[in-house]
Each structure stands twice: as structure tokens, then as C-alpha cells.
Amino acid sequence: MSIGLDELGLAARNHGFPLEMLREPVTPVGLHYLLIHFDIPAIDAATWRLEVGETSFTLAELQARERVTAPVTLECAGNGRALLGGERAASQPWLIEAVGNAEWTGTPLAPILEETGLADDALEIVFTGADRGVQGGVEHDYQRSLPLVEALRDEVLLAYEMNGAALPPQHGYPLRLVVPGWYGMTHVKWLRRIEAVQEPFGGWQQTDAYLIDDVPVTRMLPRALMVPPGIPDFLTRERFVDEGPRTLVGRAWSGYGEIVRVEVSDNGGTTWADATLEAPLGEHAWRGWSFEWSPAPGEYELLCRATDSAGNVQPLEGVWNHGGYSNNAVQRVRVKV
């Protein structure tokens, strides 16, 4: 499928993560991937309130509660969309760079749900952002829900800081939801309301988007990425590397458990060898890896793939779906030595 002007407009408005910055364990704010569905809303933190059922909180009141900082990897559910073959829905044409790993600071959600009574008999918890627009011909606020059991996880945060500073406007100032392990559509930005519902939530972003064969997209599938070695061709990004030993480095993550293995191939996936894993940064942060490579002159196709503790292995090819979601096919890097 060709990329139309509408998709080019989305690609210009949003941005991916430069793969060479995989060398950094924490992604600088300006280099973290960004997807904004509608417009960045204008919010005055002095008058802003978070409505939680019948209760409301100021930003200062939330900041005065228990404070938690955790590194969490976020990935867009559409990462890899442009690489899937066949006809698909027009949307942000991601390649493989829709990811980032930041240190998020906020207060745990679960105690607030319990204190306000929202956890008493709810089926799901609905999160509403201040951003509003039209998608699929339907005007709506950006809203997503979580099953109660997921919303009550200890690590789910109402975040007001990113990498030690207040959230920037594009990342949800003054408050956003952070749901470790889940794809980015779940992490509602510019959060203004939280409510409980006793039946499945039917908002557009929940029932018309982020589905594969009518099954909701939830947790991130395992993925490994490498820093492309050497120097690039400006247009094709093909790499040029001098002969001799070098260390390939990268990061890997999964929403289904710890990364327990990363493998590297330099022959298009015919044979594989194990990379060396670094110590984990955190339970829900990507894991660094390295691999010693000594190529002779020639042309190579480098691949890397991840395996998580649940036994999920990254596939060589993605599985087509109309929305272009959850394509965790292996990264392929063409190299001339």
C-alpha cells in the first residue's frame, strides 16, 4: 500500500525514535516516540482538576500523595504498520521506531480507586482525556478503559513527571495514565476524568480501533531492536561498516514478562547466535543486550529477535491485520562491510 498525503501529514505531525539512541537506557524526552490523535489541549494547571467518580483532585493534591518513579517502555500498537503487506487501514505509517523508555513519576492509581469507592463493584475503569476530535466519522473525547483487575495493579500510575521534569505538553501535561506492559493507546494523556462502569465500555477508541479480528490489542509483544552499525546512506539507511570486530548493541522488551534471550543473525535468519543480556533496568523497562560481530568484507542482513519469560518468541514475519497492529516482526538491517 502506498503512503498518501494524509499519512504523510500524520508522519510529519508525530515522530518516531532515532534507533541510534538505543545506546541510552533512558530516552531523552524530545526523542521519545510521539503520537497525538487529535490536538494538544490548552490546560491551565492552576484550575485543572482530575475528576474521580464524585471526588476531584488538584495537581498539588496528587503530588502530595505517595510518589513513585519507574522506568517504563512505551510502544505504539501500530509500530511496524507500514511494513505489513496487503491493503490496510490508513493511519500513522510507523516503521519500527514508535518506542521509548522514560522514567515516569506519579502516584499509584489503585489507592485512589479504593478510597473513592470506584473499585467496589466496577467491571471496568474508564479514563477520559482532554483531547477531542473526529475519527471514523465519530466526534468523541479520547477515552480508553481497563478491566478492574488491570487498573488495580500496583504499578499503574497517574504520572505528572517524565525524566524528572513536569510532563511536556505533547506527553500529556499535567497528568497522564501509565500502564506498564500495555501498548501506548492505553496510556491516556491529558487525563481529566476517571469513572467506573458496570458493563463493557463502548467508546470509539475501545470498540472500533485497536482490534485484531475483533479481539482487543492489549500487551506489547516481544521485540528486540539494534543500533544500526556503521554509517548510513541518507535515503535508504543502508549501513556501511569497516572490516573487523565490532560490538552490536540494542534493547529488547515485552509486555508478557522479562526478556530472557536475544539472538542475532547476520545471514537473514538462516543461523542464530545468542547475545549477552545486561541486567534489567526495571520490571517494565527494556533490557540492553550486546553481540560481538567480526564480519569479513561482503553484504549482510542483520536480524535480532527476542524471547520473553512467557515463552513468546519474536517472529521473522508479521501477521497481517487491517489495522496494522502488533507487527513485531524482526528488525532487518542491510550492511555492506
Structure in a nutshell:
With 337 residues, the chain is mainly beta. 9% of the residues lie in helices and 35% in strands. It folds into two domains: 5-216, Oxidoreductase, molybdopterin-binding domain (Sulfite Oxidase, Chain A, domain 2), CATH 3.90.420; 223-336, Immunoglobulin-like (Sandwich).
Q: In the CATH scheme, what's the topology name of the largest domain?
A: Sulfite Oxidase, Chain A, domain 2
What is the strand arrangement across the widest sheet? Answer: 14-15-22-21-17-18
CATH class category name of the largest domain: Alpha Beta
Tally of separate domains:
2
Overall outline: globular
Low-pLDDT regions:
none
By CATH, the superfamily of the largest domain comes out as: Oxidoreductase, molybdopterin-binding domain
Q: Find the count of extended strands (DSSP E, 2+ residues).
A: 22
DSSP strand content? 35-45%
Which range best describes the helical content: under 10%, 10-25%, 25-40%, 40-55%, 55-70% or over 70%?
Answer: under 10%
- Largest sheet geometry: 6 strands, mixed
Distance between the terminal alpha carbons, to the nearest Å?
32 Å
